[in-house]
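Worked example
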Amino acid sequence: MVASAERPDDPRESDQEPAGLYLDYGYGSHVGLRRELNEDSSVITDTLFAVADGMGGHEAGEVASALAVQTLADGWNRAEGRISRDQIQTFLGEADQRIREATDSKAGTTVSGALLEDHEDGLSWVVFNIGDSRTYLFEQGELRQLTRDHSQVQDMFDSGLITAEELHSHPQRNVITRALGAGDMWDADFTTSAVRAGQRLMICSDGLSGELTDPEIARILGAGRNAQDTVDWLIHQSLRAGGRDNVTVVVVDVQQQGDQQPGDQPTDTAQQGTQHQDTAQQDAAHQDTAQQDAAHQETAQQDASPHSEV
């Protein structure tokens, strides 16, 4: 599908003819330096991207996050990619029920992501989140967090009880107030943002946002590397900063036809929604240890055709 990038009411748009946009994306996950299991999962499709961070221990968190992203992928596949905000909420409700049944309500998961939605007036990101996984937008050198954490420390910060600096170090920073599969609240927050060429969308678990500050993330996102190299670098830096948790990152670049780098080949065919989880083989490919910090070798698993025309 080729969509217009022109929006007359946006002062940043030019008077040029509408041009096609395409997505270039990268993703990766690492167990971290202090955990035995990776309880993060992600889903990557042509138009839907999400990260889930499970909790519960004894592999229950891994089950919860896997069920969350698998339910999103299944829904996307059934609808052949033509889904809306309302359907995302429906899929999340199905995921909540599946997790409760599979874990006897003893595990839960965050989820954050974005759907590329086509309207008569153009394309938009429909961003959703439950818990403290995050979705960011990097555009024109500025990083903007599109989601709000459902966590105790976020509530405390909003109430003026702690400072922004204390968010990273507060002892309650890992306590979330909303999750799929656990507790009484699991409804997602939704927001929308216009899609423009040059944007870089990033979705991550708190294994990244808990280790790196927003300025550090912005510096890496703005360094000019392609999506997959940027993912690898972000994971590398989170491990250097301590690697206290599992870390999962998805980066999606909105590019204009003709601007792709050598080797970029936008695809015309929709690829099926797929679930991605860190495996022992993927861990081995990252080769990160505390003793060999200087020799971090992140080689994140890459999609066979990481480009989709929109």
Summary: The longest strand covers residues 21-30. Residues 1-18, 262-274, 278-309 have pLDDT under 50 and may be disordered.
